[in-house]
Amino acid sequence: MHYFTFADKDATLYENSSSLNSGLDEILEVRKDVSDTGAFKEVSRTLIKFDLTYISQSIVSRLIPDSGSKAARFYLNLFDAHPTSLAASQSLFAYPVSQSWVMGEGRSYDNPITKEGCSWNFSKGINDGTLWTPELTASGATWYQNTPSGSVVFTSGSTGNSFGTGSNDEFRLTVAGTQYNFIATASKAEDGTISIPTDSTPNFFFSTGSNTAEFTDNLASEINNADIGITASMSSISSSLGGVGTVRLHMTASSITTAGLTDISSVTGSTAGFTTEITSAGTFASGTFSITAGDYNEEEITIGSVDFVFVSGSTSGIFDNSSTEIFVLSGSSTGSSLENLRDTINNSGSLHGLPISASVSGSNSGASSEFSVLILSGSQSGSDANLSAASSSILFTFGTDIAKALEGGTAANVSTTTGYGSTGFSSALFENGSGSFGGGGVPYEASQSFNQKSEDVRMDVTGIVRAWLSESIDNEGFIVKRRGNVGNTDKFSDENNTQRLGNFSFFSSDTNTKYPPTLEVVWDDSKWNAGSLSALTSANLEDSVLYMKGLRPEYKQESKVRFRVVGRERFPEKTFSTTPANLTVKTLPPSSSFYSILDAETDEVVVPYGSGSQISCDSSGNYFSLDLNGYQPERYYKIEYRIQSGSGTTDELDQYYDEGFTFKVTL
Predict the structure, then answer these.
(1) Phi then psi dihedrals of residue 316, to 5 deg
(2) How many CB atoms sit inside 10 A of residue 20's CB?
(3) How many CA atoms lie within 13 A of 461 on its CB side?
(4) Cβ atoms 32, 115 nearer than 8 A
(5) Cα(18)–Cα(119) distance, rounded to whole angstroms?
(6) Domain count across the chain
(7) Rounded mean pLDDT, 513-531
(8) Average pLDDT for residues 187-193, to the nearest whole number?
(9) Residue 76, number of CB atoms within 10 A of its CB
(10) Which of 520, 544, 576 is the last residue of a domain?
């Protein structure tokens, strides 16, 4: 079965205009514009969101399977709208957006530009003022990746502690069982220049630098150039790069095939020592409370030392907020009141100073039993994020009868370990306190490669959609882009290098064509219970015909239809029977009989042959089902068949049937 749902909203974010909204553009673009000199470059990224309510309900009701061999897979479909100057080989990536956004009603060619709605800098518009977070580095949206990452911190510049400044100082990295050796060298050629040996996997060579910071920066570049599925960067944590301070080497598993890292170690081949600073991250405090339906006016809730007081009417110009008392507009319903409280907490951080953020988990509406739930999360680790809560009102209930807004936070622990050249290889622990990257799991990343020509996108996004359906992360839609990080600080990425890759164009949900973005759900819904029916033999199939029973010329778009298909020998043998041989129903081969749906005008494939288009069988014969909800109305569609038999044998048959079976989908 193939089920299609159309995008709820989409937009393009353009780097060349920090506040331009393009929510109503007919075209979505993933651009990369590079100046003639290569010194100047700008990119664009695309946001697309789908409503998963029906899909989620269908999984709960078991209409769509989510486990086992027939579990559904999900595909993002974007349709080519004449891109320009595409490079011969490149890839597009999709990630789940990690922040809510507003589509807006602007167009890229508006003059003056429309600034309300999402843009490169703002998630909801310039008047709302919500920036893509983290605010210091983010632009062009933020997204989840769920790839392993970790940092090693080196102390630099102190006496006897200058790891990386001696020749043959070495950092070893083991990736998926393969050990790679990154070796610093200070060898000089006869002309006085530094001579770097040629790299030969698993050995990679680079210049030491004059201090640990330069060594770390050179090491990061060499890790990136090695192309081992790891992206590395250096940052100075304190002091200047050349002075006494600490330097961080941060690494991220940049390839979807990089499952994780183990056995991380570093070594110095000289007498100089090095110190790694190990920081356990601590845990964030969290908590929940529910609000029951009632009159919130003048009711208050205290979190930490701050009173949040519900008032009616406008809070502007009537009540003066302070660091200890902040006023919240009482909404028209429990849910809206809770949302107002959430927004007040999140948008007044500079005033109340509480290390918290808030989100709405859900609500239950039903007259006096209406209630809503708010989740509070600590914005810093440590015990100081454990905040008390209290309220004199019976409308507020904290957690499981506890007076805590947040609890469970633990402080970070810092320790150091020192290694010396004379001791040989010494473990260089990551900041999470272990010898391997933290985090990871199934990466929230999908991709598709393109070679020498533009084409439609049909990207397998199963991992991302399953994360949404399981509520591991919130569904804020996809971001479709080239390889690159938040803020475009990775100089080795497709977005941030100077390679000219061209511009992808796809039809948006506001297109006037039949090509809006779709999310396609594919699963094997085939069943086989032939009863007493006999099967067509290989000999029968060599010269067979297919016909359809009860095929109507038109079907409503909301229909769920069962189509009957019958196969028979072209020239059946004569038998002594009261039923004509050409009316005797026989079955097609099980598990190797497929249908395909095409656009009758363009011959574009809508449903391809595959596991999601296997033909079923019951005691009346062969059939398949279609959910026409995602089909374009007022379009004609064609049905074709593929029948296989004797696979892997000398009698193997693989036959295609195009018998002109068509139908129209109407409103």
Answers:
(1) -85, 125
(2) 25
(3) 28
(4) no
(5) 6
(6) 4
(7) 93
(8) 60
(9) 24
(10) 520
Let me know whether 497 and 378 are in one domain. no
Amino acid at 277: E
Token code pair at residue 23: 């929510």
Asked if residue 353 and residue 234 are part of one domain, the reply reads no
492 touches 231 (CB < 8 A): yes
In this model, does residue 256 exceed pLDDT 60?
A: no
The confidence score (pLDDT) of residue 630 equals: 86
Same domain, 544 and 619: yes
Structure tokens at 127: 């008047």
* 602 and 536 within one domain: yes
Distant-in-sequence, close-in-space partners of 601: CB < 8 Å, separation ≥ 6: 635, 636
- Residue 454 vs residues 94, 357, 448, 482, 517: alpha-carbon distances, Å: 17, 43, 12, 15, 16
Does 32 reside within a domain? yes
At residue 244, the pLDDT reads 47
Per the listing, tokens 């080497």 go with 249
Q: CA-to-CA distance for 324 and 229, rounded, in angstroms?
A: 49
One-letter amino acid for residue 43 of the chain: V
- Residue-wise pLDDT for 368-392, tens only, equals 445 567 777 766 555 555 778 888 7
Asked, for residue 403, whether it belongs to a domain, the answer is no
Question: What pLDDT does 342 receive?
Answer: 85
Q: What are the tokens at 32?
A: 């990369």
Can you give the length of the chain in residues?
667
- Indicate if 243 and 155 belong to the same structural domain: yes
Q: What is the mean pLDDT of residues 195-210?
A: 83
Range of the domain at 293: 284-398
Tell me, yes or no, whether 561 lies in a domain: yes
Whether 213 and 236 map to the same domain: the answer is yes
Widest distance between CA atoms in the chain: 104
Confidence check: pLDDT of 138 > 50? yes
Last residue of a domain, one of 520, 536, 552: 520
- 11 Cβ contact partners less than 8 Å away, ≥ 6 residues apart: 21, 22, 23, 25, 28, 46, 47, 101, 103, 104, 117, 118
Distance in angstroms (rounded) separating the CA atoms of residues 64 and 75 = 15
- Give the span between the Cα atoms of 651 and 645, in whole angstroms: 8
Give backbone dihedrals phi and psi of 223, rounded to 5 degrees, phi first.
-60, -45
Per-residue model confidence as pLDDT tens digits over 111-121: 999 999 999 98
- Give per-residue pLDDT as tens, 589-622: 999 999 999 999 999 999 999 999 999 999 999 9
446 contacts 459 by C-beta, under 8 angstroms: yes
pLDDT of residue 274: 43
Q: Which of 628, 549, 640 is nearest to 594 (CA)?
A: 640
In-domain check, residue 465: yes
Residues 6 and 135 both lie in one domain: yes
Residue 223: both structure tokens together:
């890790």
The residue assigned the tokens 């805590």 is 404
Is 474 in the same domain as 386?
Answer: no
